[in-house]
């Protein structure tokens, strides 16, 4: 049986590993958090996302269509029993807050089934509960010092700044997508209309000429 | 066995247990989506350069007998491909059934993150449903504050201020990216403006030129036909 030296070494190794694992524990969000995702929804497709939510958690679903067609999408949110909590057709942007009435898997779907050939880029932000605490020993019930409360309120304010920035970025992406569409459409239209003009004006002349070429034989026949 | 005894003796058992529990948990509260094997799902992240993105994921296999999702066996792997706005591959790797992937953006813009599941054994899943739990965090949320605290022995207040500093840096980076995007937008608008301007001039020119040509051609034609 190995002596105490190896046990010490094992303990040191266990200590290091537990610190690493603990660090990993903190990296993963605890109860609550927000997931924001941008994904592409092909035409005639439907994409569903599922999330397990505990009863009593306040959740917010927010979505926005960034590029594609008329910038609209169908959205539908169902609770674990299949009851529809939110259903909107062809919406460009919306935000929906609800409190989970039962435990289970909630499902929300985005559908582009009404569109035949435009695929859409959709952004959504699903906030479940509160954000996880900064460190494990943080106890929200205990009183914070003035400095700490100031930090907490600055943190909340900065979170809303970041939120506004995200919304602004999405709006700008939408505007830019329309501007780029317009740019290509103007290019195609210019070339197309130039060609049409040329074809029509040359065609008119030859058509007119052809009228007189036919009529000349009839008029000479009449004349003679 | 012996290891646990030693761990308990040194008071490290609880973190170790938590760690092991964690390894089974994965991204606790993220959403999941259903996929089939080899079905590729892509996500877009529009981020400024120098942003660290960490994606925590967990995959599960649907068990029809139990009508529930069970954690995936070891031979189901996740393939992650990350493309930056210039279509360069930032990340193209194979990961186990659960864990996390990370990358740092090198240029600002839309990054595409594509995932698909594949079994590295020759097992066919023609009807198998798989679920990918995904949670992508970026910016200051990727920082491990407990590690900062342990390494530099910082107080709680210091940690909070550190978090605020990270948040402000993120805001600054986003604003720089905003300036870059606005410039691109302005270039597109000015290009449209130029195109419309040149098109109007060209159209007027074509109209006048074809009108003149038409008149001349018809005049010479009628003269030839002795109608004028």
Automatic annotation (TrEMBL), chain A:
Superkingdom of this protein's organism: Eukaryota
Membrane topology type: Single-pass type I membrane protein
Signal peptide residue numbers: 1-34
Domain (GOLD) ranges: 46-128
Keywords: Cytoplasmic vesicle, Endoplasmic reticulum, Glycoprotein, Golgi apparatus, Membrane, Protein transport, Signal, Transmembrane, Transmembrane helix, Transport
Gene Ontology terms describing biological process: protein transport
Parts of the chain that traverse the membrane: 186-208
Keyword Transport recorded: yes
Subcellular location field: Cytoplasmic vesicle, COPI-coated vesicle membrane; Cytoplasmic vesicle, COPII-coated vesicle membrane; Endoplasmic reticulum membrane; Endoplasmic reticulum-Golgi intermediate compartment membrane
GO cellular component, one term: COPI-coated vesicle membrane
Keyword S-adenosyl-L-methionine found: no
Family under the similarity heading: Belongs to the EMP24/GP25L family.
Role of this protein: Potential role in vesicular protein trafficking, mainly in the early secretory pathway. Appears to play a role in the biosynthesis of secreted cargo including processing and post-translational modifications.
Protein's recorded name: Transmembrane emp24 domain-containing protein 7
Organism: Lynx canadensis
From TrEMBL, chain B:
First and last residue of the signal peptide: 1-30
GO CC term (a single one): endoplasmic reticulum membrane
Every GOLD domain range: 40-161
Compartments where found: Endoplasmic reticulum membrane; Membrane
Keywords: Endoplasmic reticulum, Membrane, Signal, Transmembrane, Transmembrane helix
Matching InterPro entries: Emp24-like, GOLD_dom
Annotated PROSITE patterns: GOLD
Keyword field contains Membrane: yes
UniProt membrane topology term: Single-pass type I membrane protein
Family: Belongs to the EMP24/GP25L family.
Full protein name: GOLD domain-containing protein
Organism: Panthera leo (Lion)
Phylogenetic classification of the source organism: Eukaryota, Metazoa, Chordata, Craniata, Vertebrata
């Amino acid at each position: 049986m190995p002596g105490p030296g190896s046990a010490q070494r094992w303990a040191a190794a266990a200590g290091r590993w537990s610190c690493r694992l603990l660090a990993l524990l903190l990296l993963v969000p605890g109860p609550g958090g927000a997931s924001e995702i941008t994904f592409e929804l092909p035409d005639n497709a439907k994409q569903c996302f599922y999330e397990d939510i505990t009863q009593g958690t306040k959740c917010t679903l927010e979505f926005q269509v960034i590029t594609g067609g008329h910038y609209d999408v169908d959205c539908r949110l169902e609770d674990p029993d299949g009851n529809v909590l939110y259903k909107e057709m062809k919406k460009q942007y919306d935000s929906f807050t609800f409190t989970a009435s039962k435990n289970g898997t909630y499902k929300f779907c985005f559908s582009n089934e009404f569109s035949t050939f435009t695929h859409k880029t959709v952004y959504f932000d699903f906030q479940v509960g509160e954000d996880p605490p900064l460190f494990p020993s943080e106890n929200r019930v205990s009183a914070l010092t003035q400095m700490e409360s100031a930090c907490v309120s600055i943190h909340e304010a900065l979170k809303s700044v970041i939120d506004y920035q995200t919304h602004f970025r999405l709006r700008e992406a939408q505007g830019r997508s329309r501007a780029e569409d317009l740019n290509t459409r103007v290019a195609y239209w210019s070339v197309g209309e130039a060609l049409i003009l040329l074809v029509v004006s040359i065609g008119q002349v030859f058509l007119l000429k052809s009228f007189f070429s036919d009529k000349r034989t009839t008029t000479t026949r009449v004349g003679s | 066995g012996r290891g646990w005894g030693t761990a308990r003796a040194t008071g490290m058992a609880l973190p170790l247990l938590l760690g092991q529990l964690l390894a089974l948990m994965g991204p606790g509260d993220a959403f999941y989506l259903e996929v089939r094997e080899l079905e590729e799902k892509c996500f877009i992240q529009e981020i400024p350069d120098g942003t660290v993105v960490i994606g925590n994921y967990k995959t599960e296999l649907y068990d029809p007998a139990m009508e529930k999702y069970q954690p995936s066996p070891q031979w189901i792997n996740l393939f992650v491909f990350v493309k930056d706005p210039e279509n360069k591959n930032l990340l193209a790797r194979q990961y186990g059934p659960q864990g996390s992937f990370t990358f740092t953006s090198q240029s600002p813009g839309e990054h595409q993150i594509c995932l698909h599941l594949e079994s590295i054994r020759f097992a066919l899943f023609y009807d198998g449903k798989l679920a990918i739990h995904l949670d992508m965090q970026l910016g200051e949320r990727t920082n491990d504050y407990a590690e900062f605290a342990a390494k530099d022995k910082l107080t709680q207040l210091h940690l909070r201020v550190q978090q605020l500093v990270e948040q402000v840096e993120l805001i600054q980076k986003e604003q720089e990216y905003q300036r870059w995007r606005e410039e691109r937008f302005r270039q597109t608008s000015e290009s449209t403006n130029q195109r419309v301007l040149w098109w109007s001039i060209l159209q007027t020119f074509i109209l006048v030129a074809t009108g003149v040509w038409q008149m001349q051609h018809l005049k010479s034609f009628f003269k030839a036909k002795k109608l004028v």
